[in-house]
Amino acid sequence: MVTIKDIAKAAGVSPSTVSRVVSNHPRISKETSDKVKRIMEEMGYHPNVMAKSLVSKTTRTLAILLPRPAEEMFQDFFFGELLRGILTQSTRAGYDMLLTAATSEQDEIDTVARLVLGRRVDGVILLSSRVNDPLIDYLNERDFPSVLIGRADSSHENMLCVDNDNVQAAFDATRHLISQGHERIGFVSGPPNLTLSHDRMQGYLKALEEAGLKARSEWIVEGEFLQESGYRAMSFIMSLPERPTALVVIDDVVAFGVLRGLTELGYKVPKDLSIVSFNNITLSELASPPISSVDIGTYQLGYTASQLLLRIIQEEPVHQRRIVIPHKLVVRDSSISIAPKRS
Amino acid sequence: MVTIKDIAKAAGVSPSTVSRVVSNHPRISKETSDKVKRIMEEMGYHPNVMAKSLVSKTTRTLAILLPRPAEEMFQDFFFGELLRGILTQSTRAGYDMLLTAATSEQDEIDTVARLVLGRRVDGVILLSSRVNDPLIDYLNERDFPSVLIGRADSSHENMLCVDNDNVQAAFDATRHLISQGHERIGFVSGPPNLTLSHDRMQGYLKALEEAGLKARSEWIVEGEFLQESGYRAMSFIMSLPERPTALVVIDDVVAFGVLRGLTELGYKVPKDLSIVSFNNITLSELASPPISSVDIGTYQLGYTASQLLLRIIQEEPVHQRRIVIPHKLVVRDSSISIAPKRS
DNA sequence: GTGAAAGCGCTAACAC
DNA sequence: GTGTTAGCGCTTTCAC
What are the alphabetically sorted keywords of the record (chains A, B) (predicted)? Predict the structure, then answer.
């Protein structure tokens, strides 16, 4: 392994001079600089990252903290897109990304403690936000540079967030169904401890209320971000004596489960049941029928989060503690009523 | 930031004793150990990762080198599953994962040089293998611990690989179509510089040859791992005066593009064209009709690669330089002939 | 402009 | 069992 000393010796200068050449120190003569650079090239010198960060106290590395259980996330295709957004931005800025997954709740805190207190990374990006998230508490207490993709609950007002307006998004989705003539609309939600589930539920309820429609608790089903979850929700809802004519579904993968179950049972979408969901992954366009979905700007969510985090780390001024990425409802066949239904 | 010295001072021992306690050195008295541990707990001590790796010359970090362009990979849903396999195993072993993407070819070498020569990571996992890959040369020359997910070409015999038997997999897929009565079978391939494309092409050709069927060059189309690529391939093939009755497609996403195009044009699958593809992502089961696909054990591919790499790093004996993960053809509606066709 | 020296936080001989 | 010392590869005052 060739070190700064080896270069110094070969160039007949001191280690500090070599160090200065590497970091483009202003008052270093062009000659020495050129000579040292040539020798570095010849000897294949590369600075030792660990030694550098030991003294500089920065790592030029960010951590991505995967939600637990990570399985769901990976299965959800929009994760790849999110990752791509994060990676593009941070690579461009010269930062590396560390991917970490925790297994248990305790392990989650331990992992982040190791990264934060062990000065392993300069900042973290949190994916998915739960109500009363202990991780957010931990990071907040220590003032560690971090940004959340999602919304922090009210006890964490000063947490940096990149999020969608999920209340509005769900409102829009529900309004759309109402505009198609539906009056009996159900909601298939995700895990109740996620702020995401909570927000979308609010938007759904708000739209119903504004339209003077009543929400019925048996038309609201909670589950996971998994296909099976959609399948189960569908089974339950279709077994009700009084069924909704349309469904707002928390996630495309879940909607796919609903769609699949309906098809198996011989129901037609949108004729028997209309569907609108969220995230607009490739899958939703490819389903048959194609699923109407709210595009949440996944790539931009990741890209912006990474950008915001770097701004904090580099102590640049941050104007807003919460950045809202715009959403857009993409209407497809799954929610277009040919003949609007009446209750 | 609380360091080993602070603990030493507070406990009235020397820094080395604290270091020994941290690393569970055998000959340290239970009393001091307990006392030091208690104080560490109280003061919230966590070892500085950088300082530790500077002296130990290990980082307990592995790099995942994303293929370029990474976009394709991310869009391909099986990437998430692969990542999950890698992450599960390495997290279990106490290693962190660094995710890196390069932009240009030169940048690719620079990136890996920085990681390798800068002692940033202990090993790398390469995703996707190209013919004559300069990265593999680079890593090989320096004897740097690395594992390739895929097959290295013949000039890199000693590269560690975790792979499928892609020749056999494509052979199986093609045989299946032949057994369904097809005699005119086309192949939609991926980028020609990937060993993967090459291997699957070989298997396809071999199956045709064994069955005494002739391969026709206009029935073989190369593209990317993208849906649009499948769409284009479909357009081309369906515009031929003499068309195949079945298609082997390099990847599920591409097959999806083919399927989608066919549906748009009013063709029926499998009646007008049968399809078999590879990877068996969730999508293939969900398509209509569901797509027959070769399951390549994606999770296991990632898990095993990570395991093998750690074995190398820890200098444990490695019995085989190439581990083959078994594949399995999952037959679905897209390739089941009700009425076998004759040319 | 460049060199000498100290130190980042930790580990690992070598003493005793 | 535990302390002392040197040093991992680098940066950064402080001299000159």
Answer: DNA-binding, Transcription, Transcription regulation
